[in-house]
Amino acid sequence: MDFTLKSYTSLITSLQRAGYKFITFEEYCRGVHPEKFAILRHDVDEIAKNALKMAILEHNMGIKASYYFRIVRQSNVPKIIKEVVSLKHEIGYHYEDLAFHNGDYDKAIASFKTNLEYFRQYYPVCTVCMHGSSSSKYDNRLLWQQFNLADFGVIGEPYLSLDFNKIYYLTDTGYAWDGGKYAIRDIVENNHGLTFHTTSQIVESIDAEKFPKQCMILAHTLWSDNICQWIFLHIREFFRNNIKYLSLHNKFVANIYNWAVNTYWRV
Ligand SMILES: [Zn+2]
Asked: Which residues contact 214 (CB under 8 A, 6 or more apart)?
């Protein structure tokens, strides 16, 4: 079984064994650039409880990560945000304002500001990260073509601030490390020429010192040791991946997917 807390632990342990320093994205943006480092990024799209489990696990292993919370109720759980902060992790805003406001830039920037201030009551948030909003035709990052992140006291946005030719980017989107074809927006161009399917393949590469020295690893909150949840999530992700893929080519499927997503995700 992959994508369990056990396999996540093996990934962290192998990085520790190989001498990687764990830095938050905020630290990276403030100029902390060790020779070998891993930025652990968690986009808390849903199941906030699982984010806390990961946060405790990392804390017990003596490391820090960056947690990006959405404003929707499946992610924005104050009790959990406070606990993650108390474990010394970084908190950021996982924004989706342009998609929520159907491409209305004025409404989107106003809600971005309000939501950022909301999360700042828990932590002095200074980095943000876009949510992919795969069912929407609006790319949330486009907000920054009209507005300036620095005007909101934000010092970093992974998709805009990092050079992925230097920093290797790994994402578990679609429950696979090579699920790129299911990702609508969580895609980055790079010249590393490395792909992995399972976590154990990554561990092997780290152990063999073939893994890049600087990396950002995105792990969502679907990693679970609970067998029922693990099976449910794998089946759901299988169907969701295929619907996402189909919706790229079929407008009817895209409309139904968009309707389902808008109905499910509520603030
Ligand atoms: Zn997301």
From this structure: 36, 37, 166, 167, 168
